[in-house]
Each structure stands twice: as C-alpha cells, then as structure tokens.
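Methods — Computational structure assignment.
A single polypeptide chain was analysed. Its primary sequence is given first, followed by the predicted tertiary structure written as structure tokens.
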Amino acid sequence: MNKKTSFISDFKAIVFAALLVFVLTFPAQSVFARTPAEIRNQEELNISQDMSSQDLSGNDFVKLDLKGINFSESNLTGAVFNNSKLNGADLHGAQLNDALAYATDFEGADLRDVDFNGALLMESTFTDALIEGADFTDAVISRIQQKELCSMASGTNSKTEEDTRYSLGC
C-alpha cells in the first residue's frame, strides 16, 4: 500500500503543480473580464471624422468621445448616446427621433435643424450649442434644460416645420 499511496500523493502533487502553473501564467482578465453590455459591438461602428448622411439608426454610441465628429444629415433614429461627449460635433439636419442621450455633452455642438422628436435627453448639457430650427417635440428634458434651451431657441425645423421655441414649450 505504500507504493499506491506514494503514487497517489505524487499524482496529486503533479496535478496541483500543473494547475498552479496554468492559473499563474494564464491572464485572469481574459478569463473573467467581459465587455459591459453598453459598449459591446462598438468596434464594429468604424467611427470616422465624417459620419455624415449615413443610416446609423439604432446604433449604440455609449461612453464614447465623439468630439468634432460630423453626423450631419445622418439618420440616428433610436440611437443611444448615453454618457458620450459630442462637444463641437456637427449634427446639423440629423434625425434623432426617439434617441436616448442621457448625460450626454452637446457643448458647442451644431444642432441646427435636428429632429429630436421623442428623444430622451435628461441630464444632457447644451452649453453654447446651436439649436436654431431644432425640433424638441415630445422630447424629455428637465426644467433646467428647458430654460437654458429656451434662452437660445429660434427658428423653424425645415423638415417638420415645427417652431423651436414652441417645441420646447417656451
């Protein structure tokens, strides 16, 4: 029985050593880390400086730095921009119907003639944004955002023919 016990002990030690070597040399991040749901498939978007006049409806642009990107005249219906930075981005004439842009930074963005009909824009910032002709009909914004946007609102949307101030409830 000594040989059998010795063989089993040696076998256990070898298996334990092999397992230990495997665990220590295999990167733990690749085993346990998962891409958060909100940023999966974003590498497939092939984001470039000129994203104008494209059908990007339903895409997720979550937690991305999109400063200065040209989205003018693009279809962004139902797109998600949560916690993204769109500072200085050109969205002139884009469709953002039913878009979700929670806590998105539109500072200095060109939002002229954008259709935000039904968009959820809570906690987003619009400092120095150009909103002439933007349509905010049924968009969800806070009272603070409404006051800020009303202070700079003017024009009529060329596609929906809705007055910007009226769409904001000014």
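Note: DSSP finds four helices and no strands in the chain.
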